[in-house]
Design brief:
heterodimer; A: 115 residues; mainly beta; 7-stranded mixed sheet; 4-stranded antiparallel sheet; 0% helix; B: 110 residues; 6-stranded mixed sheet
């Protein structure tokens, strides 16, 4: 149980375009979803937290207009990287949690390469 | 400030040797504690977690961790390392949001 999927697993896009990453909870309702970014050989940095039906809360230093997060249902959250640039290339990981429980369930990650 | 410290960036052990990965944290209250493993290009796999109760926690793949409140530590151990254990290990703490340590990269010598 508690499976989280991400799509796509990897994506290459050209500089200036936008790319959307999906995060789905497959067998539970995710009241909260978290988006992390991981640079090569570095740790995970929390970008934002989203609760179903509410606006996402971004961590300090994360551009909310660049990283658009939508959590429209209890099983789906999306991260859209707008006007992507090479410095946005990274490994993006989502996690999901349920109300009343403090454990997060992680997706397999999406590798974004911006050329 | 809340933080997680994994003092060892790299650790190399021989196959069959014992392993201990260190994790220290600074947090306002006793948080929930986690250890994850990440293979190259892959997502995170939960090894074990501590919420409350017995301070010695058993996890998957033969790993265990001990919570020491007085030392604000949650060290991960394994009595005999296998070559397949080579990976990146992350300690994480939190009650809602997680704070991750910087990771320890484990290399296993045959």
């Amino acid at each position: 149980g508690a499976v989280v999927s991400q799509h796509p697993s990897w994506v290459i896009c050209k500089s200036g375009t936008s790319v959307k990453i999906e995060c789905r909870s497959l067998d539970f309702q995710a009241t909260t979803m978290f988006w992390y970014r991981q640079f090569p050989k570095q740790s995970l940095m929390l970008m934002a937290t989203s609760n179903e039906g509410s606006k996402a809360t971004y961590e300090q230093g994360v551009e909310k207009d660049k990283f658009l997060i939508n959590h429209a249902s209890l099983t789906l959250s999306t991260l859209t990287v707008t006007s992507a640039h090479p410095e946005d290339s990274s490994f993006y990981i989502c996690s999901a949690g349920t109300s009343g429980r403090y454990e997060q369930y992680f997706g397999p990650g999406t590798r974004l390469t911006v050329t | 400030a809340q933080s997680v410290t994994q003092p060892d960036i790299h650790i190399t052990v021989s196959e069959g040797a014992s392993l201990e990965l260190r994790c220290n944290y600074s947090y306002g209250a006793t948080p929930y504690l986690f250890w994850y493993v990440q293979s190259p290009g892959q997502g995170l796999q939960l090894l074990l977690k501590y919420f409350s109760g017995d301070t010695l926690v058993q996890g998957i793949k033969g790993f265990e961790a001990e919570f020491k409140r007085s030392q604000s530590s949650f060290n991960l151990r394994k009595p005999s390392v296998h070559w397949s254990d080579a990976a990146e290990y992350f300690c994480a703490v939190g009650t809602y949001k997680y704070i991750f340590g910087t990771g320890t990269r484990l290399k296993v010598l045959a």
